[in-house]
Amino acid sequence: MTELAWQKSSYCGEGESCLHAAAAPDGTVELTESSDPARTVLTTTRATWASWLQALKAGDTSAAGIEVEAAPHDGIRIRSAETPSHVVTTTSKKWHAFVLGAQDGEFDHLAGT
Q1: Cα distance between residue 57 and residue 44, in whole Å
Q2: Which terminal residue of the chain, N or C, has fewer Cβ atoms less than 10 Å from its own Cβ?
Q3: What is the pLDDT of residues 49-66, one digit of tens each?
Q4: Is the CB of residue 25 less than 8 Å from the CB of residue 2?
Q5: What is the strand order of the sheet 66-71 is part of?
Q6: Is 4 among the domain residues?
Q7: Cα-flanking dihedrals φ and ψ of residue 21, to 5°?
Q8: Quick one: pLDDT at residue 1?
Q9: What is the DSSP letter of 108?
Q10: Number of domains into which the chain is organized
Q11: CA dist., res. 106 & res. 100, Å (int)
């Protein structure tokens, strides 16, 4: 099994758990919450990932293929059309850190661009 090079936003504090993203060898992009004991992984195509990053840069939280919704207790749920049964749950603080990193282009390379 290939070890993925997981990356978190530079806006996450040192040593803090956060949303982590990685490019997989099969050409997909994976997203997980590092503090999730179940290690749920959302998988999406690079094209969907690129579209989502563009939406985040424009201030929109969702794009075709990825849905973001509020959850109880200051939570955020993220799901992909490619793996709708895999729901990544995080906090609004960690989500905000991820979005800031996405807006700064920190995850653009995962889209293969």
Answers
A1: 18
A2: N
A3: 999 999 999 988 877 789
A4: yes
A5: 66-71, 75-80, 87-91
A6: no
A7: -125, 150
A8: 44
A9: G
A10: 1
A11: 9
Burial 55-78 (b: 16+ CB within 10 A, else e): bbeeeebebebbbbeeeeeeebeb
DSSP class of residue 109?
A: G
Alpha carbons 105 and 86: distance in angstroms, whole number: 25
pLDDT at 2: 61
Best CA proximity match to 20, nearest among 104, 90, 82, 74: 90
Domain assignment present for residue 23? The answer is: yes
Residues 6+ apart with CB under 8 A from 71: 77, 89
Given a cut of 70, is residue 113 above it in pLDDT? Answer: no
8-22 pLDDT tens trace: 999 998 777 899 999
| Residue count (the chain) | 113
Q: Which domain holds residue 102?
A: 16-106
**Bridge partner list, 31:** 21, 42
Q: Could you report the per-residue pLDDT of 30-39, keeping only the tens digit for each?
A: 999 988 877 8
Is 6 within the bounds of a domain?
no
